[in-house]
Each structure stands twice: as C-alpha cells, then as structure tokens.
Amino acid sequence: MRTRAIAWGTVAAAALTASLGLAVSRPGHAQPQLTRLERMNAVGARVKRAMGPRVRYLSAAWQTAIGVSNRFDQLTALGLKPSLAEIAAPAVSAPAGHFGPVSSPPDLGVTRFSTFSTSETSTAWCGSNAVVAFNDSGSLLETTLSEGASLVGYSRSTDAGTSFNDLGTPPPLSDTLSMVIGDPVVKCTSRRDFLLSSIFQDCADAFCLTATNGVTVWASSDGGASFGTPVEAVSQDMTQHIVDKDWMTVDPKNPNNIFVTYTDFDVTESNQGCSNPFDVLVSIKLLASTTGLSGFATATPVEVAVGQCNETLQGSQVVVAPDGTIYVAWEKIAVDGVTREIDVAKSSDGGISFGAPVKVAGVGCAGDCSQLQGMIRTNEFPSLAVNTKGKLFMVWNDGDFQVPDALAPLTSGGLSSSYGFTDIKFSRSNDGGGTWSSPVRVNTNPASSFRDHFEPTVAVGSGRIAVCFYDRRNDPLNFLIDRYCANSTDGGATWTNTRITARNFSSVVAQDVLLVTNYMGDYDAMAPDTLAINAGFIDSFAANSSGYPRVRANTF
After folding, report:
1. Residue 366 and residue 302 in contact, taking contact as beta carbons nearer than 8 Å
2. Among candidates 290, 209, 221, which has minimal Cα distance to 253?
3. What are phi and psi of 394, to 5 degrees?
4. Is the pLDDT of residue 7 over 70?
5. Which of helix, strand or coil describes residue 536?
6. Where are the beta strands (DSSP E) in 22-96?
7. Average pLDDT taken over every residue of the chain
C-alpha cells in the first residue's frame, strides 16, 4: 500500500509554496502566479461568501475544500512538505479477510498532530473485479506535486472483494489549475468497464480571478486498474452556480446510457424566485448521455426539481429500472432548516422531463440538525435501489426520537433546541414511485433507546435486500460506533441485524488538522455483483478502529 508521511519544516511559507505547487512566472506575466494552495483558498473563500449561512448544506466535498480556506493562514505559516519517497511507495495487496482495509494507513512517525481522512465511499462490483472510491485528503499532497490536484482516491480488488490494492488517484483534469474535490461515485457494467464521477473546481486563469466547477467522469476499460482522461460532464461559472453532490448510474440494458445528477446552488443576483441578491435558489439537475462519455459534450442539464427561494434540495441519488424509467431521490430542507422530507421524481422519456416530485416521508432532524454527538457532521440523505422487477427501495436515517437538549441551540446555531436520536428507516414502492409504504425501522434494537444509527446504504440482489450503517447500540453513552448490516428476505417487512465490526471505535474527529474535522462524509454506498456471478454484497465504510480514519471493506 501507499504509505504517507508529512514533515513539518521551519521555513514557513516558502517550503509550503514549493510542496503545494510552486508558483513560477510564465511568459507574459511579470508577477508570480498564485500557488495551488492560494488558488484553493481563493475558491473556498468565494464559495463561503456566495453561500452565506447556507454553506452548512454543502456536501463533504466542498466542506473539505473550504477547510483549506479556513486554515490558509495556519497552513502557510507551517511550511508543509510531503515525503516523496513515502508517497512513491508501490501499492500491495491488503490482507485477505472478511473485514479488510481498503485505503492505506498514514505514517504517524513524523507528527502526532495530523493524519489523513479517508471517508465517503462508493463501491462497484462486476465479477472478480471491484473498485472502491473515497474522499482522501492524503491524495492532496500526492497530486499537488504534479499536474492537477485531487482529494479522491480509489482501490481495486481482483478477487471479488477479498483484498484490495490502493491505486492512488484517478488522472487529473487536463488543466493544471484544476482540483478534484470529492463526492466520488463508481459504477461498472462489465469486468472491464468501470466509471467514476466526482465534483471538481477549476481556476479559469492563473490568478484565479474567475473559476468554474462541475462534475467530471472517468472511464476504465481494464477492470479499474487505471482510468482514462476525465470528461467534464457539466461545468458552471462559480459566480453563477455552485455544483455539488453528484451521483451517477448506468442503464442496465444499455451501458452507453449514463445518467448524472447533482445539486445546483444558483447564487446569481437575478435568480428566479428570489428577490434578495444574497438569496440562493437550489435545484436538482440531471445530465443524460446516450453515447457514453462523449455524449456529455452536448448534454443539457434537465431540471428534476427546484426549491423555493432558500429552500435546500440536496443528497440526490439516481437509478434506472429495467424498463428504462429513471428515478431520482433527494432530501428537501425547508427555509427554517428544521422541516425535512424525502422526495422522489421519475422520468419515463430517458431523462428529457420529470414528473412532479412525490413525498416519500417526512423526517426528523438528525442530532441537532447539523451534527451528531461526537461532533460528526450528519444529514438525512436517502439511499435508493431498484430490483430487476422495477420495485424501489429507500433508506435514510431519521431523527425520529427528539429529546430536549440544553446545548443544542448553541451547537446548531439556533436551528434546534433538541437532539434527534436516529433510526434507520426503510420504505418501498411497488407502483413506480407513485406511493410508498409506511417507514419501517431497520435497526432491531429497542426503539427510543437513546442511540444513534446513521448513514445507511441499501442494495438489492440474490433475493434479498441489504442495508448497512453506522450504529451505537453497544455503547450506553452513545459515543462508540460499530458497523452493522441488516438483511431482509420478505421485501423489507422484517429485518435481521449482523454486527460487522469485532470491536467498536471512537467518534474521534478533528484528527485531520489540515483539512477535515468530521471525517465520516455524507454517504457510503455498497454494491451487489452487477453481473450476478457472485452472491452477496461488498460494503465499504470509514472506520476509526486504528485511531485514525481509514476505509475498510466488508463482504456481506
């Protein structure tokens, strides 16, 4: 595996500038360009100004990028320098086993005050090959030494998830001023063919006076061993639109049909529906390509749903049923920041248009509406799956057990005066998303148990429905975390729960002092074997059992 180390220097800004992409003058420029770190700081500051108090609703990808801006002065004063020898270490197979590592552990021999965050996983599995992609702050130091910067890493298995090789980062965008900032999603259509998407931002000039952002997609034709040149599926001027939280899927009947959804934060002063120039109009949009990656060059974003002024739509997921119907799910957060629901919309014409959204269920705020005990950033984003008969399955964590909390007004910024202990909720639709069953608890420990169960992922296959999630049922203080997976063979009416972790781990945050303070991301995504060759599921998730955030995989 790659081993990462960082060394702290005493030369302050000069050493940091060299390690994070030295600014050198190009022909025609009398003054040095901005360093890559300075460009990241400029973009992060721009996003914070544009979003105002609604910056809390941005995904983990943008939160990570903004973290650079928040710590810019401290970072430039430290003189960070990565170890080239350690970064260049070749990848080796992870130990085999039911509960094995995916991402490489950091080398803590140089400092005791920082480690790297690997979280927010996505899994694709086709036959013997599987790929797990994840947010990876350690990749920032690796990629800033070359062209393009990235906060996304990926690992590959050639033995159906028994072991993984950490393969670094996907290739950078062609523009050396760009940066891949996270929210990765990976899918596959054959043993050879894999796709990976992520959010990116790009300075449009060497001084970052203007910038763009959007969704980029890579393709692999060698089973995930390598990825080709990325394609910008959508790119927007950041003074007009902030693109966030992508998701991707492929038509099971036609691998050339690729669909990408994302959240569009319209921050223009003339956005429709908003009278105040500092207001934000949020929508869920879809991009459809019928000719593989090349089709995104001419694809026009389709509006799936749009909120009222300052209402937030976030956390979209998209699936395609066997008959070609496209379904998109997301969470809607009202202007008050407290009233929340899960919605879904469908398209029967290949994504050209969508019907009116259908409310699946109202949801209670998780924790204090922004974080769980232990200062873990949280949300109620849905996870969506469809089976071979076109039936839909949805899960989310629901703060359905609200308890008064004296400090909640302080920790939530005035959003809440209570703490919502979370359960994993499940609902299904047998009629194409028109109606949904009453939500059922997936976690089987006693209700109202003052424990949190959060960030679920759902998948279907092998005649069963599987849901995996983080779980605190084994700690009466609601602090230590386990990984649990649930199984249903009766369509979600009843569930059995299986503990995956041999021992629970602490809710340790702020270990990555460089970037991320809440390492668990916004989602995890497990997968069945798309080719239906192997039974079961590969579940990937972030664990802190080693004392630092590390992605692991579990075959379930």
Report:
1. no
2. 290
3. -130, 140
4. no
5. coil
6. 80-82
7. 85
